[in-house]
């Protein structure tokens, strides 16, 4: 008796092509409004989490352990499969960011700053090499540190965009951090061309920010606007909406301890980035059956970012392409086209990836479907393996499945109806648990596991460490089969439901793979073959 594991071909279960992806972009982007207009930044709050009781897509669903924090996912024809959001994500609503535009900033530049007038209206000034800051908020160490932060950010902007610091020698931004808008109006700091705005606005090298609910988010907004200013100054553009806002979000997400600054971080905990919430946006949308294929994000029009959700998805697209070891070089090279804000920018990016775009689509789905704080994009990256017809090889094949990586291809192309026996052996480290006391220098407790997993903790409906199996065909459109895995554990017999390549992985959170060590030896035997 054989287990039959399912593989999601998706509602568009047709063989795709690179041309089909490009044509999809052309058909939608041709109708997008690519005008660059002045627009206010009013944005709605992210939607509330929607719980789902969608059934597991597994050969024999494992029972859920008490207190399990991960849930199985289902799917609909119109969206990606869903994952129930973690309850710890609940919290303050996410503050939206402004809509940017490329427009004349001559009036803003011509404004004369009268220092005595500023003081008369309670506006204080802090001056640095790269940033002149005006604010009506009482100065504290955090506000005084912003010019230093911005100078350090400029160095990292240059590193990211592969520019020499001397090329930006004369670049300086004037920013207003505003608590009482009327004070700035009376002091003559607000140009007439500046529209009403809810959170922030940029006019060339003039930035206007309303006070934010957290120090982190105030800095984030300053760096976000600073990225726009930098790109518009030195690249004469910032690309189409998804790219413009995605890069700004990418470089604004940071860690700052008052001395050292790191841009382009992937936060490991929501408490480190209060009111940012981009991870939550993606998780909530996926849970609400509103997950997006990467092509959909690239189709955002000029008004899309009136809604805060667009910032979450734009950040996710930029972060994924920028941090993935196979996709980064092509993505970063495309900055040379930043002056093009039309849909052609995205079409030419897809064309630049060539046949690799199929891998982009496959792994993007895994990224957003399993979104977590601290997601390890590099370890979740699927390494290329030469694909061979299993029927042409010896019936017995052996593979080492690494515990510290995501999905791993066997390179075996199997066909519908094949019956395969799987046997998995070996022990590996699946978790390292540190004590609650941060001062405790003791070695962490090491959890060892075999392919059957450790039922003390569950992830995605299965015990941590369980060996998972999936089937995928890169060139299919629709959903990747890797979102519909089955638990094979220490072994069993499986029947192949459709043609594709076999993949295996050890079950664990994408944020915790670095803790793991060792591998599982997987032996495959093709049954019914002489």
Features:
Glutaredoxin; Jelly Rolls; 530 residues; 5-stranded mixed sheet; 27% helix; 14 helices
Low-confidence stretches: 4-16, 30-92, 98-104
* Category from helices, strands and their pairing: alpha+beta
User: Total number of β-strand segments?
Assistant: 23
Which fold does the CATH topology of the domain at 106-263 refer to?
Answer: Glutaredoxin
Known CATH architecture of the domain at 106-263: 3-Layer(aba) Sandwich
How many helices? 14
Tell me the distance between the termini. 20 Å
Please give the largest β-sheet. 5 strands, mixed
Mean pLDDT: 83
**Strand numbers in spatial order across the main sheet:** 1-21-14-23-12
Roughly how much helix do the residues carry, as a percent range? 25-40%
Gyration radius, in Å? 25 Å
CATH class of the domain at 106-263, anyone? Answer: Alpha Beta
Strand content: 15-25%
Write the layout of secondary structure elements.
Elements: E1 3-4, H1 18-29, E2 74-76, E3 79-82, H2 106-110, H3 115-120, E4 124-127, E5 131-135, H4 141-160, E6 173-178, H5 181-186, E7 200-203, E8 206-210, H6 215-234, H7 241-252, E9 254-256, E10 261-263, H8 278-287, H9 294-298, H10 309-323, H11 328-333, H12 344-353, H13 357-369, H14 377-380, E11 388-389, E12 396-402, E13 408-414, E14 419-425, E15 428-433, E16 445-449, E17 454-459, E18 462-464, E19 467-472, E20 486-487, E21 491-495, E22 500-506, E23 519-526
Parallel strand pairs: 1-21, 5-6, 6-8, 11-13
Antiparallel strand pairs: 2-3, 4-5, 7-8, 9-10, 12-23, 13-22, 14-21, 14-23, 15-16, 17-18, 19-20, 19-22
Helix pairs in contact: 1-12, 4-6, 6-7, 7-10, 8-10, 10-13
């Amino acid at each position: 008796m054989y287990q039959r594991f399912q593989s999601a071909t998706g509602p568009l279960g047709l063989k795709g092509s690179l041309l089909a992806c490009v044509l999809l972009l052309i058909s939608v982007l041709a109708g997008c409004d690519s005008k660059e207009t002045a627009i206010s930044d009013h944005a709605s709050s992210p939607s509330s989490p929607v719980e789902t009781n969608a059934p597991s897509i597994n050969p024999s669903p494992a029972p859920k352990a008490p207190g399990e924090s991960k849930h199985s996912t289902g799917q609909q024809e119109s969206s990606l499969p869903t994952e129930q959001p973690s309850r710890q994500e609940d919290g303050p609503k996410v503050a939206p960011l402004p809509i940017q535009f490329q427009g004349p900033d001559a009036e803003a530049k011509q404004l004369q700053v009268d220092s005595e007038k500023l003081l008369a209206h309670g506006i204080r000034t802090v001056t640095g090499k790269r940033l002149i800051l005006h604010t009506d908020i009482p100065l504290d160490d955090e506000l005084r540190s912003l010019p230093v932060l911005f100078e350090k950010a400029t160095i990292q902007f240059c590193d990211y965009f592969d520019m020499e610091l001397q090329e930006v020698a004369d670049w300086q931004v004037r920013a207003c951090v505003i608590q009482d808008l009327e004070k700035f109006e009376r002091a003559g700091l607000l140009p007439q061309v500046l529209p009403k705005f809810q959170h922030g606005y940029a006019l060339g090298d003039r930035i206007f920010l309303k006070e934010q609910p957290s120090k982190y988010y105030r800095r984030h907004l300053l760096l976000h606007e600073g990225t726009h200013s930098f790109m518009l100054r030195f690249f004469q553009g910032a690309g189409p909406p998804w790219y413009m806002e995605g890069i700004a979000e990418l470089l604004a997400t940071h860690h700052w301890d008052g001395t050292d600054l790191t841009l382009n971080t992937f936060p490991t905990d929501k408490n480190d980035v209060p009111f940012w919430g981009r991870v939550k946006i993606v998780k909530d949308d996926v849970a609400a059956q509103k997950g997006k294929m990467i092509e959909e994000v690239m189709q955002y029009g000029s008004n899309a970012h009136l809604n805060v959700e667009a910032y979450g998805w734009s950040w996710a697209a930029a972060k994924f392409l920028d941090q993935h070891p196979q996709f980064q070089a092509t993505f970063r090279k495309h900055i040379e086209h930043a002056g093009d804000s039309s849909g052609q920018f995205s079409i030419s990016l897809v064309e630049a990836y060539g046949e690799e775009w199929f891998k982009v689509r496959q792994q993007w789905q895994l990224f957003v479907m399993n979104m977590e704080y601290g997601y390890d994009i590099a370890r979740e990256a699927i390494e290329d393996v030469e694909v061979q017809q299993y029927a042409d090889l010896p019936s017995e094949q052996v593979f080492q499945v690494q515990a510290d990586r995501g999905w791993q291809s066997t390179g075996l192309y199997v066909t519908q109806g094949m019956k395969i026996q799987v046997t998995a052996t070996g022990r590996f480290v699946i978790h390292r648990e540190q004590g609650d006391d941060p001062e405790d220098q003791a070695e962490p407790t090491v959890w060892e596991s075999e392919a059957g997993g450790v039922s003390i903790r569950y992830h995605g409906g299965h015990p941590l460490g369980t060996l998972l199996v999936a089937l995928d065909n890169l060139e299919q459109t629709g959903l990747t089969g890797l979102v519909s895995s089955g638990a094979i554990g220490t072994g069993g017999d499986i029947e192949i439901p459709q043609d594709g390549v076999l993949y295996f992985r050890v079950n664990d959170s994408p944020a915790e793979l670095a803790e793991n060590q060792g591998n599982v030896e997987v032996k495959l035997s093709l049954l019914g073959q002489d």
